[in-house]
Amino acid sequence: MRVLALLMLVLSGGALAAGPRWQPATVDLPVRQVGPHSYYVEGVLADSSAKNQGFMSNAGFVVTTDGVVVFDALGSPALARRLLAIIARYTDQPVRRVIISHYHADHFYGIPALREAGAEIWAHDAARLYLHSEAATRRLAERQQSLGPWLGAGFVLPTPDRWLTADESFTLGELTFRLVHIGPGHAPEDLAMLVEPDGVLYAGDVVYAGRVPFVGEADTGLWLNGLEHLKQIPARVLVPGHGPASQRPAADLALTTRYLRYLRETMAQAVADFVPFDEAYANTDWTAFASLPTFAVANRANAYNVYLQMEQSALKP
Ligand SMILES: [Zn+2]
User: Fold this and answer.
1) Model confidence over 252-270: pLDDT tens digits?
2) pLDDT, tens digit, 9 for 90 and up, residues 37-90
């Protein structure tokens, strides 16, 4: 007993000594309601920067009569604390649970603030791979540079309280939450959450509504897998990890699928014909996607990334 008391003292003393660990975020977090109980804050469509304080991803929250469920933790503890203040405007209920869509910096760095508020954090087990990767270390160093004040001194990559290894459903208050592992897609651990009966699907970064996605280093073959998984989940509204919600989930899932397939087909053909990238890009007919909002900023880099992927897989025996 005395050992436990001493341990508690040491732990709480440590926390107190740390003081305010991060600078409060001051950016506006616009709230959108997408169902009777379902909301999300919509990040700006830009890269993470000091100017937007890293607020470039979405986070959902669902208010029940027995607590709140949050989907994704945003890009810093400071942003997550701001999210908590916003939720408090809608309900007196505490945040009980946080579901992390995937372990990319803009979706899980806010965990410490949510945990401090008493929430239990769940993420899919496949994220363990990332936590111990060199990419995670590199990304952390970059974010400490660009978002240091909002991460706070001594920030370490936060782990969840519970690793999920299979799909599961739970009820809270009057609502049922269905968690579906749709990865490997955009990331190995991609998780989606369907809120019943709102019919709202929080889908993470696997789908983008009415625009061209940013492919980055994602494996587009696996990504198409994730999209096929998402198509099986009946939803009225889909909230992606970035940008506005989709009121036409089936059409938007089909659009992202068509786009990724087209990139893969055209770039694979170019690689097979030994056509250099610049020439292949110039000769590809992009008219089906050219009018989409993010086409101008994303398409060339996407095509290039997929070209490199296709080159690599052509080299494999
Ligand atoms: Zn993201």
Assistant:
1) 999 999 999 999 999 999 9
2) 999 999 998 889 999 999 999 999 999 999 999 999 999 999 999 999 999 999
Q: 185 CA distance to ligand 1 centroid (A)? A: 13
258 vs 265: CA distance, rounded Å:
10
What is the CA(269)–ligand 1 centre distance, in A? 30
Residue 184 in domain? yes
What CATH number does residue 74 fall under?
3.60.15.10
Cα 306–chain centre separation = 21
Burial class (CB in 10 A: 0-12, 13-18, 19+), 295: middle
Provide the residue range defining the domain that includes 149.
Answer: 21-261
Query: Is residue 284 domain-resident?
Result: no
Compute the distance from residue 242 Cα to the ligand 1 centre, in Å.
6
Give the rounded percent of residues in the chain with a pLDDT score beyond 70: 93
What's the CA-to-centroid distance between 271 and ligand 1, angstroms?
29
CA of 160 to the centre of ligand 1 (A): 18
Measured in whole angstroms, how far is the alpha carbon of residue 223 from the centre of its chain?
14
pTM: 0.88
The CA 244 to ligand 1 mean position distance, Å, reads 13
Number of domains in the chain: 1
Per the domain annotation, does 220 fall within a domain?
yes
* pLDDT tens sequence across 190-217: 999 999 999 999 999 998 888 888 888 8
**Class of residue 17 by CB neighbours under 10 A (exposed 0-12, middle 13-18, buried 19+):** exposed
In a domain, 8, yes or no: no
